Automatic annotation (TrEMBL):
Name of the molecule in the record: Serine--tRNA ligase
UniProt feature coiled coil, ranges: 33-67
Pathway membership: Aminoacyl-tRNA biosynthesis; selenocysteinyl-tRNA(Sec) biosynthesis; L-seryl-tRNA(Sec) from L-serine and tRNA(Sec): step 1/1
Enzyme class: ligase
Cellular compartments annotated: Cytoplasm
Residue numbers binding L-serine: T234, R265, E288, N385
Organism: Hymenobacter rubripertinctus
CDD domains named in the record: SerRS_core (cd00770)
Any single GO BP term: seryl-tRNA aminoacylation
Amino acid sequence: MLQVSVIREQTAAVLAGLAKRHYATAEADVQAILALDQRRKDLQTSHDQAQAEANELARQIGGLMKAGDKAGAETLKVRTGELKQQTKAHSEELTGVEKELQQQLYKLPNLPHESVPAGRSADDNEVVREVGAKPELAADAKPHWDLIEQYDIIDFALGNKITGAGFPVYKGQGARLQRALINFFLDEARHAGYAEVQVPILVNEASGYGTGQLPDKEGQMYHATADDLYLIPTAEVPITNLYRDDIIAPDQLPIRNAGYTPCFRREAGSWGAHVRGLNRLHQFDKVEIVQITQPENSYAALEDMLAHIEGLLQKLELPYRVLRLCSGDMSFTSALTYDLEVWSAAQQRWLEVSSASNFETYQANRLKLRYRPENGKTQFLHTLNGSALALPRIVAALLENNQTPEGIRLPAALHSYCGFEVIR
RNA sequence: AGAGAGGUGGCAGAGUGGUCGAAUGCGACGGAUUCGAAAUCCGUUAUACCUGCAAGGGUAUCGGGGGUUCGAAUCCCCCCCUCUCUACCA
């Protein structure tokens, strides 16, 4: 969430950022926040003063008791009783005000970086570059949902039987391709300087709040209510929350982690056209990269992550394009997001396979993730993450783009990982 | 899952109602000493919020929440977690 200090000291810039986001009630919400913040300060001051007096009296009473002056002690207790009522009233109101302030702050999205193009929808996203030639397929080329049946490598019906729609079963070469991609992505991340972590795929409520999935996107996560745990929609949640409530020593920065996890998304209400086959699933595999950096380095880190992801797509020989998301299409918590899309030759459309974002201090504020600059006050760090990469749509593009009469010819980078070169 | 023990500052570890934000040790940092270092000595060594131009002052925090009390790290209740034993399991 945004820092109150920023809202207070740079109100105009905040309002401009929210306007770029098309946030309708910016003026009113910001005013409400500023009023609540002022009220919070006033209450804190009165509370502290009353408490300070009570503490002083308690000390005096202690002295009187020791000296055996019971009557004197009783006299002071009268005042102390009043103060107790006061501080109690103050702290109750303070709790209420803080809670309301918190809720108001949760409502505000992150401010877009200056390079974010203004826009309302995906149509307004900026195509930064397009790399690689789109393959020319034969007239009878098949979409991946037909190919997976033809080669019997992914089985939706079976997944449907044991779980439900959107939970495919990978079989034979299909299963091995999954494992190969995961290993390939993890190795590439490690070579690029990311430390590998393996994290739980169920997280508690605090973690959900830390990275911003809660409270806004509650319905998007599977919730194991018996234990009040959430199945992660992305490894971003556990990996970033590893550093919740931490103050990181400068020499530990930047933090660069990579991890593979299955991801779970309810995708409530988002089914429709274009979601056949692997295009949208409830469970899928993904390798995620996360960076935590000092504020001044975060945009260089984002470019660095982007370069890494592009390198993966190039090694997979997939044509792709890089989008800079416009202000209306960016996720709530992001300050700048690049989406990477691969060309799916049989479907004749771009498929999003990665999203790399800089959240600046938006998550760090919730996470209380700070560092201590040399001889300075603690400061919030910047958090970033990117998919590197999400498997299903990569698989869809690999299958479609590389289909031949003799089978699906996989890119050279995967041969040693798969143990085969062609899916037959 | 059952029984018992326990959760204190970066770490170790005292502290069972009254200057306890907390002894002591270690570590770290600054200084003295040294040609330099080790050792030694002196000092510093949490976080958040409020207040103040600042220096400073104040409040809160001893796993989390609530309660008793003039006063709680210390007493009571609930929850979480860790360890040991038993049971079970991969």
